């Protein structure tokens, strides 16, 4: 009787360890990093960030958000993102400067630089979103 109970406990522990390992590998493979290329978007940036947070929580994925701020941005976009960065982990702000030549890097160069600085291990999927300028249309007009 005791041997049967030990077999059941051992089998339960083995299944739990396999499920934990599978979930951990899946979580690392599902890591996404959103890069929002923004300018003067003080009215929209909070909505974009909150929508991405909600979607990641709903899908159960780990995520990171970096806002790449254009050098000609003069509104409160940076201040809004800085408030998110203080309170939320995984949200960052990078300001591009007109003078610095390193800020005119390609997407691949930015990704390599961020991956080398990132404390997380495992593969990441990079998703670049260039927000439309204030005067551009957001969709087809009818």
Automatic annotation (TrEMBL):
Residues 97-142 are annotated as: Disordered. Residues 101-115 have a biased composition (Basic and acidic residues). The chain crosses the membrane at residues 6-23. Keywords: Membrane, Transmembrane, Transmembrane helix. This is Uncharacterized protein.
């Amino acid at each position: 009787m005791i041997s049967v109970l030990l077999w059941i406990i051992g089998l339960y522990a083995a299944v739990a360890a396999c499920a934990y390992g599978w979930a951990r590998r899946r979580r690392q493979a599902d890591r996404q990093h959103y890069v929002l290329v923004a300018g003067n978007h003080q009215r929209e940036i909070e909505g974009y960030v909150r929508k991405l947070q909600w979607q990641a929580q709903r899908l159960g994925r780990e995520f990171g958000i970096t806002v790449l701020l254009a050098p000609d941005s003069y509104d409160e976009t940076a201040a809004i993102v800085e408030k998110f960065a203080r309170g939320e982990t995984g949200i960052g702000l990078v300001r591009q400067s007109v003078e610095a030549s390193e800020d005119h890097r390609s997407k691949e160069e930015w990704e390599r630089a961020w991956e080398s600085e990132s404390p997380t291990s495992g593969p990441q999927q990079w998703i670049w979103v260039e927000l439309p300028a204030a005067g551009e249309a957001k969709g087809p007009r009818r």
